[in-house]
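User: Can you predict the 3D structure for this chain?
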Amino acid sequence: MIFHCMNRAAGRTRLFRKPQDYAAFELVLAHALEAVPIRLLAYCIMPDHWHLLLWPTQNGQLAKFMHRLTMTHTRRCQEQRRTVGSGHLYQGRFKSFPVQEDRHLEIVARYVERNAIRAGLVERAEQWPWGTLWRRTHPGEAKPSGVNVDSVIERCKLPLSPWPVKRPADYRRRVNQPQAAAEEQAVRLSMTKGRPFGDAAWQARVTKRLGLESSFRPTGRPRKDMRQGKSSG
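Assistant: Here is the predicted structure, written as structure tokens:
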């Protein structure tokens, strides 16, 4: 089963301040993939958060991989900034939700790879050097001019796995087109609640299998009349 995972910096701070920070995270990501060989389908690293689209091969692999990735990155980042013991790097445990292996996978992948466009960092997704689309468009190439990173980090190779469904031939064009507001809202809702992202029948099966019933419960306090045991009619 495929999962979208993301995490954000604590206190609205920046995780990545310069190209070397992004490149160092890619190196940590590559090492985590070597230690826990989960399949990486898409990713995008943003100034204060990141998105990963992961496809585990066995139970428990996702949690093990994410623990290794975030703990290693936190340790190295705090050592580099000399902030060990000064607080949390991330706002908390990573957020995740399952994704159906059909058109819903493409929707989520497009959402992930459009991040830099939505943030106004680039005009086209493949121009952002810290994401999957740049890597797929420039296989084996160094980062673009002006992005200077350590040569050891530059040579880091991130193994990108093939999708379980065929990627459309015009996928890059689709990524660079504005995404429907309803699609973006649906992805954000799944991200916020940890709700399975797919059609209704698949959602019902996965919700029961993974015990995610709480992801469909309304948030906030119940209405006053309901707390008092009255019916609103």
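Residues 225-233 have pLDDT under 50 and may be disordered. The first strand starts at residue 2 and ends at 8.
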